[in-house]
Amino acid sequence: MKHWTWESTWPAPAKLNLFLHVLGRRSDGYHLLQTVFRFIDRADLLRFTPRSDQQIVLATPIPGIAPETDLTVRAARLLQEATGCQQGVTLHLEKNLPMGGGLGGGSSDAATVLLALNHLWQTGLPRPTIEKLGLQLGADVPVFVHGRNTFAQGVGEVFSDVELPDETYLVLHPAVNVPTAAIFGAPELKRDNPAISPAHWCHGDGHNDLEPVACARYPQIAAHLNWLKQHAENAMMTGSGACVFAGFSHRNQAEAILRQCPNGMNGWLSVGLTQHPLADL
Q1: Is 140 assigned a catalytic role?
Q2: Where in the chain is the domain with CATH 3.30.70.890?
Q3: pTM of the entire predicted model
Q4: At the top level of CATH, which class does the domain 168-271 belong to?
Q5: Per the residue annotation, which of 44, 70, 109, 140 is the catalytic one?
Q6: Over its length of 281 residues, how does the chain's per-residue pLDDT go in tens digits?
Q7: Where in the chain is the domain with CATH 3.30.230.10?
Q8: Does residue 72 contact residue 58 with C-beta atoms inside 8 Å?
Q9: b/e code 159-183 from CB counts within 10 Å (16+ = b)
Q10: Would you say domain 10-161 falls under CATH 3.30.160.20?
């Protein structure tokens, strides 16, 4: 098992939604979902430097996002407040995951901050407590804290872990930043899928209810998805977009299709993980 320290570089991996059904909408506006989250090996990277004061400082702010609203800063402050921790930290974030891509990058960053600082600050919170804290930051944060490939329900915080086959994923990224709230708030979004039992779900079942909405509003997503479906009929969008993907049992199949991508179509290969890199922290 890896020994995690202040000198470590901490991964914040991407996720893919292997299906995403919308079952309804709560009175508070949150949607009731069913989805399977799969972690993949493409990741943002974080480093932490201890501070003698109590300040939370982001050394690598993202253009256009005020540091105080950045999920990494908010996660560190939330852990401070929840535990009464008197320590501070400087955060160093290397962004490799596209924003607005449906890969959960911001949520994953926040989860890694919570897990890492709980370990480095020795605040001692059990993982289920950190999951509940994470839900205050966003619906996708708890699954990254949870750390297992899982069938998620509720607003995305009730988990039934699943075993998934080894797969290589071809991921295409249309050059658009999709605001999640706009897709979930669309009046045409289908919100009445019947619930399915996690025990009855099989790999390959389901679709993404958000896909038709995103494709109609962002022609780039539709174009990328249509091209990928010509080569892999199981292709779909992840999350609320923009990225689309297809899974392959043999890496050489994915490599062959990636080589055929038209000029201007940005894609990469990622391997499905059996669990989050910090699952056993």
Answers
A1: yes
A2: 168-271
A3: 0.97
A4: alpha beta
A5: 140
A6: 789 999 999 999 999 999 999 999 988 888 999 999 999 999 999 999 999 999 999 999 988 889 889 999 999 999 999 999 999 999 999 999 999 999 999 999 999 999 999 999 999 999 999 999 999 999 999 999 999 999 999 988 899 999 999 999 999 999 899 999 999 999 999 999 999 999 999 999 999 999 999 999 999 999 999 999 999 999 999 999 999 999 999 999 999 999 999 999 999 999 999 999 999 99
A7: 10-161
A8: yes
A9: beebebeebbbbbbbbebebebeeb
A10: no
